[in-house]
Fold each of these.
Amino acid sequence: MYDKGKVLTGLAIFVAIVTFPVWYDLVHAQHVPKLEKPTLSKKCVADIAYMRTSHMVLLDNWRNEVVREEKRKLIDVEGKPYAKSLQMGCMKCHPDRKKFCDECHTYASVDPFCWDCHFQPKKEAN
Amino acid sequence: MDVKRRNFLKIAGLSAVAGLGASSAFTQLLKGNALASEEGAGGGETAAGHGAPEQGGHQEAETAFQYGMVIDIPKFAANKGLAEKCINACHYEHNVPDYGNPKDEIKWIWVDDYEHSFPDASQYKRNAGLNDLPVLLTCNHCANPPCVRACPTQATFKNDKGVVIMDFHRCIGCRFCMAACPYGARSFNWRNPREQYANGNYKFFKHGLNPNYPTRMRGVVEKCNFCPERLAVGKPPACVEATGDTKAMVFGNINDPNSEIAKVLNANFTIQRNSAAGTKPSVFYII
């Protein structure tokens, strides 16, 4: 083979560049999000699988029902009433936005604009 | 059959013209019918509902329930500071930012003088003292709201209690509603109301924040909503609550003849702002 050294070096560089994303991620592996579990209650307004995939749909529906249709009836979960509200409902059990919302949102690189207007308890509203 | 080419072409041409003409004449007739029936139904409705079909054809059916408010101006004049108390109660309750300059001002409820509140009333030889009265102004929650028609996203709409609601989530900040409102009851957030100082304090909430109500964001229009979140738990609007026992503000369903507000309306001479605009404001003033 002619120019053995050059070809092999070139190949090595090529492979290194192509596989860069793979080994970069191995080195800088992000931790898988781990959510802080609520201490106040065990059961959510919907089952965990649904909340995990579709909580945004639920929040959207709540918003329309409360703001536009005046359907503000509290949701009853095992005798405990919950308001259809991010600020007055969800955040009662999950009070820390950083450990609950941002944990996954940052990992999944989504940037919802809830907090442009709504408050997380304690921290912002003082 | 013995048809000459010349004759065939003549007949074909004539039938083409006849066919086209007939179909267009037919659609014209159809349109005419539809228009006539629409006018018939619409006219009948307005005549029955309002007796004022000349008001521009924008009438919507009145809701059976219509929240309204009577504002007793002499009582506000007699209780110095009561108007400010109402304004502060409202603006604290709803985290209304104070940008500190009139150009960016956000107001849900505010005070103006008689002359500018009722410009369509005669000012000729007006009682000079009238202009010293604190006229408390807010969204009129019109029975026929022009802002609702102007909104392209239905961010503002009339709910089944007759309240003109702002859905801040849906507002795209086009400000059509502000152009449509004849009362200047809507304000636009030119700046971010949540701007902070370096030390983390908010710039525009001097009286602190109400943690139970969100703020708005930049580029959103806001106005008085008659406190739907308070009404839902059986409380009166914040401003009405602030007037306490003075009865300077009476709030209720103006379409229910047995409600307190209906009785007040029945017993007093009241005026409305710019009633000639045909918007049917639900806020009434005793002067």
Amino acid sequence: MNFDDTPQEAAFRESARKWVEANAPKELHAELSRSSLGRIRLAKHDIVDVGKAWQKKKAEGGWACLHWPREYGGRGATPIERVIWQQEEGVYGKLTQPFQIGEGMCGPTVMAFGSEDAKRRYLPKLASGEEIWCQLFSEPSAGSDVAGLRTRAEKKGDNWVVNGQKIWTSGAHYSDYGLLIARTDPNVPKHKGLTMFFLDMKSPGVEVRPIKQANGMQEFNEVYFTDVVIPDSQRLGAVGEGWSVSLTTLMNERMSIGSRLATGVPELFEFCSNLMLEDGLAIDDPAVRSKLANWAVKSSGLKYTSYRAISALSKGDRPGPENSIGKLVSGMMLQDIATYAMDLQGAAGVLTGADEETVQGQFQQMLLSSPSMRIAGGTDEILRNIIAERVLGLPSDIRVDKDVPYNKIPTKGR
Amino acid sequence: MNFDFSDDQKQLRDQARKFLTEKCSPKAVRVVLDGKASYDEELWKGLAEMGFLGVAIPEAFGGAGAGHLELCVIAEEMGRANAPVPFSSTVYLAAEALLIAGSDDQKKKWLPAIASGEAIGTLALFEGKGNPSPKNVKLTAANGVLNGVKKPVADGAVADFAVVAARTGSSGRDGDISLFVVDLKAGGVEVKSLTNLDPTRGQAEITFRDCKAEPLGAAGEGWSILTQMLDRAAVLCAFEQVGGADRALEMGRDYALDRIAFGRQIGSFQAVKHMLADMYVSATLARSNSYYGAWALSTNAAELPEAAAAARISATQAFQHCAKNNIQVHGGMGFTWEFDCHMYYRRANAMALGLGSLTYWEDQLIEHMRKKNAA
């Protein structure tokens, strides 16, 4: 048991480190380091602009999507090399935020189901950040039950015509392409009538509207489709096979290991180390210490769980299912920690506002943003179902609509 | 990175599991639970023959000279089997104390006897209520004899010798405490068994009256040695707790698959599935924290105190959580004496207190994190 690299890993790390040292936008280092809890705050720059510049440089140096094959813009790196790269990229990895959906979900789906022409046309530009992709799965009436989606795609000659609405689409307003799942046959049970496509987000009939969120920010969008034409050549997988194609997409999302999940523990530790209460520093109070310790061991537990997965990759094994706990644990922690940090301030905890410039404001922002952490990318409840069914082997839910044709499923207001 | 046990160590774990499945069935545990024996002597002999008692004791002192990672995987299996033997007192505490601070003569006298199963050892630290603290040590040592009362002493009624924490000064500092080794069969000692939460591991009160004792380590170094002992034992106990938590989770899962109610397996209800998923989360966090503790223990890393506290807290909570909800999944059957759920519930809650309560370890963890942050 050790934390050391193998000689090959050490050599790879050394070359990655040297390249980052020579090429990273160091002028952004301080701001990126201060950006915590998944939010990037750059005073003078737009994240998409600086992100694209960094991604382009990485692509030229052979570090973009490095685990992809060379012909599609990567360098054929092993999974462990990808983790080492992420470690060495460090805070600059935050600049890749606009590309994460594309790299993590859309790209792998195109790679698995696209034609050779499509792969050579789209993947290298996705990898280099020249073109940004978004994912169009969720709908207002189809979140956890995404197979119940309503957006229709109808075949007209060699094209498909799409009408409907998607929601919670990160980055739709700056994306060039989107991965879209739509209903192509409403007369069969819901999982069987879906088909996967990709489309040009500038196509006529696509309208992107930002959503004002509960935390006051606008990070997600609604996307409306009115008679949008998609050529059949942009279909991924067979007609009616969209559900199994989407499982590939979602599995890739969950395979990304070593991504640093924010827990709020370092922020709370620092806050309590400086916060003066009536009887002294908060961190000297036994009740505060107990709370802190309980969150600290969850946070360290997550860290060492990811180390176990990295070790499996290093040996060339598939990581075990234990990584599925990450988002479930960290999402709840962020919310609880924010609530507690405010509680420690007493009535004054309500002041400041969620401005992120002060420590107090950061916790307010964490409080207001954390509900989304427990919903996006699989709700806490869906994640528990996944653990129960796929890890513990418990029976899947009884699904009353499983064998019912989609257009016969009772719904509210259709 | 190789943050995992080696293939040899995993093989040893399988070997221990096979041995314990055979020799330490729930039926065997119940012999001790029901008060028909104070511990499982046959199992103890078997553990000695397998080389498990001396796995981390150097060959020069009669052990296998393997190491602490090997001891961790065995500890996990001891916890999974709920073994009714004085393993933790003897191996994690008494043997470790001798390895840290024993003289050559003391090691020669006791370590081979531990490895061969002839000697049971324990730590006599607590004197009634309270967590580990120099202030709570009142038993005195003067002129080579001890006077005072220790309780609870885990496995005190079956132990042959004890490491005893005694007061040798009154400055109010840690240096007031020294450790001693006492042969409990040599006189000056009165041992009384105490009723306790987990009858599969005995507790005793030991009264020392002008009892002859040998110093263990230098005078005034007692508290420093004791802190190291507790950190090391915390990691090893964490593996027992991880093993117990996993077993409780498995029992709950198996019952949820087996039991039919409302015309379906109860494991198909989300209320039950989510409870079991949360148990898996706790057990996984505990396992990962314990692996870090194992690394720190086996390499004697500077991070050991922090790693030990994290492993201790995480594993204590996981075992308590899994043992508690295992009963809940079982419903009424889980609350019968006949079902094994309560044995894990008892063990989980007794182990949560044995090396000091969560309050103590939470305080330790934050103190060490602060020191690290300040550095």
